[in-house]
Amino acid sequence: MLEASNNNELPAIPGKRYFTIGEVSELCGVKPHVLRYWEQEFPQLKPVKRRGNRRYYQRHDVIMIRQIRSLLYEQGFTIGGARQQLSGDEAKEDVSQRQQIVRQMRMELEELLQILKR
Fold first, then answer.
1. Which of 69, 82, 98 is nearest to 41 (CA)?
2. Can you give the residue range of the structural domain that contains 84?
3. CATH number at residue 68
4. pLDDT of 4 above 50
5. Dist CA 67 CA 42 (whole Å)
6. Could you report the per-residue pLDDT of 92-111, keeping only the tens digit for each?
7. Confidence bin at 56 (pLDDT 50/70/90)
8. Is the pLDDT of residue 5 over 50?
9. Nearest to 82 by CA among 94, 105, 97, 65
10. According to the model, what pLDDT value does residue 6 have?
11. pLDDT at res. 75
12. Is the dihedral of CA 99, 103, 106, 112 positive or negative?
C-alpha cells in the first residue's frame, strides 16, 4: 500500500481524524469532482457523510486515494484495472490474515492437547 512518506511530491498527511473534501483534494493533488467520481468507481472508498451530505474522509481514505492516484496517473492503469488491482491486494491481505489465524488456533489447540495429556 502507498504510504504518505513514499510519495515525495504530495504533502504529509496531518494527524487529524477527519478531512474535508477540499483538504483531501490538496493532500492528494486531485480535484474534488474527481474524488466524488472515484467514490462511485471504487467500492473501497467510502467517506463518512454527515450534515447536508458533506463528506469527511479518514486517514485510510486519504491513503487509498493516493494509491488510486498512483495507479491511474503514474502507473497507467485504467479505472477497471486499478479497481481489479486494489481488490487483488485486499484478497491477498485476507488470505494472509486467515493463514495467520489458522496458525494461531492450531498452536492454541496443541497447547490445550498438551494440557489435557497431563
1. 82
2. 4-117
3. 1.10.1660.10
4. no
5. 12
6. 665 666 777 777 788 888 88
7. very high
8. no
9. 65
10. 43
11. 92
12. negative
Look at residues 72, 73, 90 and name the one whose alpha carbon lies nearest to residue 81: 72
User: Which residue matches cell numbers 493533488?
Assistant: 29
Tally of domains in the chain: 1
Q: Distance (Å, rounded) from C-alpha 5 to C-alpha 36?
A: 25
Q: Is the pLDDT assigned to residue 51 strictly greater than 50?
A: yes
| Phi then psi dihedrals of residue 90, to 5 deg | -65, -40
Per-residue CA distances from 65 to 28, 58, 99, 114, 118 (Å):
7, 11, 28, 49, 55
Residue with cell 495467520: 100
Beta carbons of 69 and 59 less than 8 angstroms apart: no
Position of cell 504529509? Answer: 12
